[in-house]
Amino acid sequence: MEITFEHVTHSYDANSPLANLGLNDVSLTIADKKFTAIVGQTGSGKSTLVRHINALLKPTSGTINVGGRVIDSETNNKNLKSLRKKVGMVFQFPESQLFEETVEKDIMFGPMNFGFDASDAKKAANEMIQLVGLDESYLDKSPFDLSGGQMRRVAIAGVLASRPETIILDEPTAGLDPVGRHEIMELFKELQNQGRTIILITHNMDDVANYADEMAVMNQGKLVAQGLPSVVFNNQQLIKDDLLTLPKSAQFAQALSQKGFKFEKLPITIDELGTEIKQQVNGDNSE
Ligand SMILES: Nc1ncnc2c1ncn2[C@@H]1O[C@H](COP(=O)(O)OP(=O)(O)OP(=O)(O)O)[C@@H](O)[C@H]1O
């Protein structure tokens, strides 16, 4: 589903549309079926931006077009179910929203709310628990008997169970250990491979470099850059202005530049860095 923001401004001050701007005249297209990362310093407007996609927030001015559904300041709260079924949102620390007695009931809650009948919701719970890397035996457990990482997976399964076309992830791996983070990121990539649109808010630039097709950089409510990660991470001005930090491979390449290595373009993943170093070392040897 393509998502387009046109001149979207959001003021958190109900009395003054020009004060406390969470978003300031943002125009942006998020491509269908791609993996798009939204980055920016804390308070730059990332969460405010994505909360407009399922109309949790309405723009003060401007419009958002979500696969043909237009959201503007006049959008009525009453008819949002079909939109919210299509756009699943995993909030920061989603496990804090678990509340049912069993994992199964928790995962079924979303689909039931969106009109699935009980047997379809049960089937979805069964599929999704496995998709997030837990076996069926977890379905009968209390969510509160699980580890933090397991609870996170259950909460994600609950969002996936309604089979949204677009999945918005607001720092979904915050607080997870590196192995847990890797597994969850691989799951999101797999969901994209199955045809979903993935939108990820993150502070982890390695995840952006490794998984995203496109990235958008926010600062003070404005969109300051958008494009391929390999291009955006090579925008020196963004780095200089402290609007973006580099993935580790690019940082390492920068350090190597001080030791005589030359990079026309900073490599942003370990694979790219490895290839560059190999070429340069082999090149030196053959001289
Ligand atoms: N409910 C709210 N009421 C008033 N101001 C808010 C509210 N939520 C966010 N803001 C303000 O809007 C701006 C953007 O906040 P937002 O949460 O969208 O940033 P963010 O980039 O997601 O930050 P973080 O990385 O810390 O999650 C900030 O200045 C913030 O203080």
From TrEMBL:
<dbReference type="GO" id="GO:0043190">
    <property type="term" value="C:ATP-binding cassette (ABC) transporter complex"/>
</dbReference>
<keyword id="KW-0813">Transport</keyword>
<dbReference type="InterPro" id="IPR017871">
    <property type="entry name" value="ABC_transporter-like_CS"/>
</dbReference>
<dbReference type="Pfam" id="PF00005">
    <property type="entry name" value="ABC_tran"/>
</dbReference>
<comment type="subunit">
    <text>Forms a stable energy-coupling factor (ECF) transporter complex composed of 2 membrane-embedded substrate-binding proteins (S component), 2 ATP-binding proteins (A component) and 2 transmembrane proteins (T component).</text>
</comment>
<keyword id="KW-0547">Nucleotide-binding</keyword>
<protein>
    <recommendedName>
        <fullName>Energy-coupling factor transporter ATP-binding protein EcfA2</fullName>
        <ecNumber>7.-.-.-</ecNumber>
    </recommendedName>
</protein>
<keyword id="KW-0067">ATP-binding</keyword>
<dbReference type="InterPro" id="IPR027417">
    <property type="entry name" value="P-loop_NTPase"/>
</dbReference>
<dbReference type="InterPro" id="IPR003593">
    <property type="entry name" value="AAA+_ATPase"/>
</dbReference>
<dbReference type="GO" id="GO:0042626">
    <property type="term" value="F:ATPase-coupled transmembrane transporter activity"/>
</dbReference>
<dbReference type="GO" id="GO:0005524">
    <property type="term" value="F:ATP binding"/>
</dbReference>
<dbReference type="InterPro" id="IPR050095">
    <property type="entry name" value="ECF_ABC_transporter_ATP-bd"/>
</dbReference>
<feature type="domain" description="ABC transporter">
    <location>
        <begin position="3"/>
        <end position="245"/>
    </location>
</feature>
<dbReference type="InterPro" id="IPR030946">
    <property type="entry name" value="EcfA2"/>
</dbReference>
<keyword id="KW-1278">Translocase</keyword>
<dbReference type="InterPro" id="IPR015856">
    <property type="entry name" value="ABC_transpr_CbiO/EcfA_su"/>
</dbReference>
<comment type="similarity">
    <text>Belongs to the ABC transporter superfamily. Energy-coupling factor EcfA family.</text>
</comment>
<dbReference type="GO" id="GO:0016887">
    <property type="term" value="F:ATP hydrolysis activity"/>
</dbReference>
<keyword id="KW-1003">Cell membrane</keyword>
<dbReference type="InterPro" id="IPR003439">
    <property type="entry name" value="ABC_transporter-like_ATP-bd"/>
</dbReference>
<comment type="function">
    <text>ATP-binding (A) component of a common energy-coupling factor (ECF) ABC-transporter complex.</text>
</comment>
<keyword id="KW-0472">Membrane</keyword>
